[in-house]
Amino acid sequence: MHTRTMNSVRCSKSSNKTLSLVFLCLLSFLNEQHTVLTLAEANSNVYIVYMGTRQHDDPELLAETHHTMLTRVLGSIEASAEAMVYSYKHGFSGFAAKLTKAQAQAISELPTVLQVIPNRFHKSQTTRSWDYLQLSSYSTTNVLHKSKMGNGVIIGLIDTGIWPESQVFRDEGLGPIPSRWRGICESGELFNTRKTCNRKLIGARYFIKGLQAEYGQPYNSTEYQECLSPRDRSGHGTSTSSIACGSFVANVSYNGLGVGTVRGGAPLARLAMYKVCWNLYGGGVCTGADILKAFDEAIHDGVDVLSLSIAPDLPFPDVEIHNGISIGAFHAVAKGITVVCAAGNAGPSAQTIQNTSPWIITVAASTIDRSFPTPITLGNNWTTMGQAMFTGKDTGFINLVYPEVPELLSPRYCESLTPNDTWLAGNVVLCFTSNSNHNAVEDAAWSVKDIGCLGLIIAINPSRYLHSCDDNFPCVQVSYEIGTQILYYIRSTRNPLVRIRPSKTHLGRPVSTNVAYFSSRGPSSISPAILKEHPWQLLMSQALLHCSNHCTQIGPLLLSNQHL
Asked: Are residues 363 and 443 in contact, defined by beta-carbon separation less than 8 angstroms?
């Protein structure tokens, strides 16, 4: 058994009746991703006790019945209070508690309990796009204007939190907060609701008890550079929120590239953030218990739409018919709330689709018709186009080299250069890589720059990601075919030269669109009868400019699971 100690609570500044037979039949198609959990104690774990539709309209009375049930099994009020993690009492009935397997089995046999579910782990999934989808803000006849740009709609995000100071969350031009709104803004570390919430960001809460109970220790926010508050540390929730309903921000670009007005799909909608995902072991980790609590509160608060860029990990080692997202989404939809979830980032293989419940709108990632062509001219005056985000000065003609050292020639040579490889300094280097990791270009660029090289031309196929590298350092991506032509030139020329000019922004043909390489595909191996995310039956998402590692998608690329 491995136990992770988490002991600090400081924030790093860096940063209705029982369910119908129809519901049960539909759920039988679904599967819950199983992840091996780290236990705080050898014989206990967090379980979700699911009891279906609420039996009482009074939420406090419902919570009391949950405590009574748990007391009956554990033997004392004190033990019940210590074991209880959450009481789900607004949108549906149930609770999360710290139990042994025997205790969980005993509770599952009670007549009012539909199922006891282990507390699974899930993960967060990370300007031109709306115009490309023919939802331009300049047209007065499209769906955007017919829907009044989302005016009066409340969108809830279940994600990693929010960075409220972003300009896309300003409330200029918005009227009073809808009177039907019952949610709150919750203060916490580096999150003062008097300064952060407004008529745009009308709700902000965080849920971590499910994660803490699983580990049995307080979450060390300093170690993991997190904030015990709705504050977003990773940027994922801020990104998805701005894409869903960000306000208009004009003249946005990357150093002059891709100039335009940034806005969300529903720029006049209100926003509520429910933070459930936490930085842990280098990723956004979200437990089923916390996700269900966010659903429960969002239903109570009065949201109209719920968006989740969260999914369990592949592979599916077991087949269960319930999980936190599908259960919470079912009850939300039953209340008239539209639920949109990520298809997942496990592509391009088939049968990798996640969030397959039929009542969920499952969203994949597509590409847009924008590229950033970068002229490469060789010493023989042959010019070809690469892809880059190079905004520096024209390099003029400088020396071009290819590392012709047999023992060093490898598909990942440039990513593994050392400070001793100074013989390459002062040149533009041509490299080939078969590394499918989206950091390959960035790693190679850092390596060649550190030893004094003046630029990088990297042949990589397929060209899935476009990295900005350093603003003034040219690192240009080309296909294997073009890379080979450049290599032939180097080998046939005594003093090979190259000139790299700044990148431009190109819209429209010949750039075509397709399903993003990383976006999960169907059919579902668990529920193949439910049509989800076949490449030819795809509800595609809107485009996004940057991913978490400053990775910009060219024409056929953008960040996944952003929502319409």
From this structure: no
